[in-house]
Amino acid sequence: MKNCKFLLLPLLLLSFACEPEGEVSNTPNEKLEITAVEVPEEGGVKLKAKYTGGASIGTSESGFLISTTEAPNPSGSIDLQGTIAGNEIYFATTGNLIYNTQYYVRAYIKHSETRILYSDIKSFVSLGSKLLEISIIEKGLLQDTVRISGKYFTENSHYISVHFDGHRASVIRSNDSIINCLVPANIQRYDPVVKVDVYGKTATYNDFALFTPTITSLSENTAGLGDTLTIHGDYFDFENSRNKVLVGEKETIILSSSRQAITFVLPTSLAVSTNAVKLLSQLQETTFSGTVKIQKPVINSIPGNIRAYETIEIAGEDFSKEKAENEVFFGENLAEVLEASSTKLIVRVPIGPYENRSPKLRIELMDYIVAFEGEVKLKDVWLFKNKLTANINSRGSQYFVHNNLGYTFEREDENSRFKVHVLDPDKESWSNFYVTYPRTAIQQEDMAIVYNKQSGRIFFYFSAEEKNFYEFSLQTKSFSLKKDYPGVARGASAVFSIHNNIYLGFGRFMHATGYEDVAPLSHFWSYNPDTDEWKQMADFPLQGSRSDVSSFIIGDKAYVGNGASHTGNNDFWRYYPASNTWDRMADFPGARTYTSFFELDGKAYVYFGTVLTGNPDETAFRYDPTANEWIILDPVNDLYYTYFIYPDASIALRFKDAVYLGILSWPHYEFFKADLSKLKM
Asked: What InterPro entries does the entry give (predicted)?
């Protein structure tokens, strides 16, 4: 039997001619008729035609024209060349017909180019092609060619559709037993169900799967964060977006992909140093048999003699480029990382607190803890030591030092008691205890504490007309009433002790109306603890209210200045008890209130305060009584306490061999300890 030849043109090119194209020339009694049209259940069609009259068919070209139009013709039909047996023409096919479609057929014999004999037209409804059989579909890759092997396909790929889980594949070529197509890129699983449709008949294949990617090696097994590595292996996807490389469960940036290699960038942050490498490709997960180890960071150098809160550069190797991943510690204080690269970290040294001036520097990255082998030196004069959470009033003296312990009194008016905070400079730690108020009414009153160094006795003044002066016992933690201070009640006053006596003066009216006689505020009083008697001393030379002054004792003389009335004051005065006289000294460099102050080795120190006049950037001063001059000192830490944030409230505690400065940073007081050798320079 001769092979059948198919000529298929688009069905939209319909022929509406009643007769076929070309000249029809029949001899008398010559006839061609279709004698059988059989549509088998398995698909296809069997055709038979009989020729009578005239000469035999011989070797003339003959066959059948099949079309979906009512008038099959050579230009718009399938030309099925038949097999000649005597005076009959046969043709049988199992494919190439569309299921449930009406076809029209006519037989023909072409005696010559000018003489063609046609039969009448018959029609049939197709049952499609023979039921498809898929024997195997080779494994493949996304957007790669796979071969579908089976039976009863067609070489006419226009009538073939292949779907992978509903996603249509592009058919490249086909014949009766093979279909080559591209695996769709948008399938969602590696083992989709494949459906093949040929002329309306469908076959399903459930055993197809994509190749499983394999990883054979990694370009480097040890690398730094952010380094570029390459996975080698097979069956990868060549499209970056369809691949994922995970290192320690963290997705990487993929630079390039091929079937055998994927190049990617290690994450700049990882939880641990040794990590598994996973590949998600071809809709499957593959884990590398080995691991990638991140190199341990190294600290090479830091600047010498740094300051707290200073911005410095740490040079080294294998840091993370992610700022937050590099945890830099000075002692137990976490530094702020401002910039980061693999070879340097720009950090702000923590303000503290510090145990000493040589804190250990370390960097924690992933599960590494790297200690700097060199020495860190803090050159600060004042070093942050600890915090105290307390609401200590900075108006008037609320603190003192006794037996080398510092005491600060915090008012708890709701409980009518003091919370007493005790600083031990040797242990550099705080403790506390409670003391009941001597009377409830002091809730509405200012207070000032004065410590008599000579006797070790402690006295409290409250701004009331009566019951305003008490002695406090640390042993019994109780108050005993003393003889009332006889002068005008005043708040934010100055109290100090020289030798055995207590002195009280300055201040403001507690409930001023603006019409009071201010002369009594210039009166100065002395109290003798041995006799429990008050005595008025020489008036302060300038009349008027003046509250929140700076005062300190050098030798046997008191120095008083600063403070404010209606405006700030910068004048400073010396009081000499032996002669009961006042002398004006060198003016302070600007007017301010709420300062902290202390004496050290015959010189006075004044810090912070509310600036009323003068340079606000100048926050530290030293007074030399011999030269009668004020010297501007370096501030506590001008990197931390700038003009915009430096505090109004501060307190100074002068111990035997140490000085602490408590600076309000609400709700804490931050206590700094001075390097006395540097402070006195």
From this structure: Ig-like_fold (IPR013783), Ig_E-set (IPR014756), IPT_dom (IPR002909), Kelch-typ_b-propeller (IPR015915)
Place of tokens 């020289």: 498
Q: Give the Cα separation of 536 and 42 in Å (integer).
A: 132
The closest alpha carbon to 569, from 590, 585, 553, belongs to 590
Cβ-based neighbours of 580, under 8 Å, separated by 6 or more: 537, 538
Q: Give the number of other CB atoms < 10 A from CB of residue 431.
A: 11
Query: What CATH number should be reported for the domain whose range is 384-679?
Result: 2.120.10.80
Kind and range of the H or E run holding 677: helix 676-679
- Give the mean pLDDT per block of 10 residues along the chain (681 residues): 34 37 56 91 87 76 92 89 89 80 91 87 84 94 97 89 97 95 97 93 95 97 96 98 96 98 97 97 97 97 95 97 96 97 97 95 98 96 94 80 96 94 96 96 90 95 94 97 95 93 92 78 96 97 90 96 86 97 96 92 93 83 97 92 72 95 89 95 87
> Given the structure tokens 């402070």, which residue do they identify?
679
What's the predicted TM-score (pTM) here? 0.76
The CATH H-level superfamily of 298-379 is: Immunoglobulins (2.60.40.10)
Q: What is the CATH number of domain 31-127?
A: 2.60.40.2060
| The CATH number of the domain covering residues in 133-205 | 2.60.40.10
Q: What pLDDT does 44 receive?
A: 83
Closest CA to 459 of 423, 493, 421: 493
The pLDDT value recorded for residue 13 is 30
In DSSP terms, 623 is beta-bridged to 604, 630
Q: Judge contact between 67 and 30, C-beta under 8 A.
A: no
Of the candidates 442, 448, 356, the residue with the CA atom closest to the CA atom of residue 398 = 448
Q: How far apart are CA 136 and CA 194, in angstroms?
A: 11
Domain ranges of the chain: 31-127, 133-205, 214-294, 298-379, 384-679
| CB half-sphere exposure, 164, CA atoms < 13 A | 27
Same fold across 133-205 and 214-294: yes
Q: How many CB atoms lie within 10 A of CB 93?
A: 19
Q: Which CATH architecture has domain 214-294?
A: Sandwich (2.60)
Scan for tokens 């102050």, then name that residue: 597
Q: Is 387 exposed, middle or buried (0-12, 13-18, 19+ CB in 10 A)?
A: middle
Q: Which two tokens stand for residue 8?
A: 């298929």
**pLDDT for the residue 391:** 86
User: What pLDDT is stored for residue 587 in this prediction?
Assistant: 96
Please give the angle made by the CA atoms of 378, 379 and 383, to the nearest 5 degrees: 70
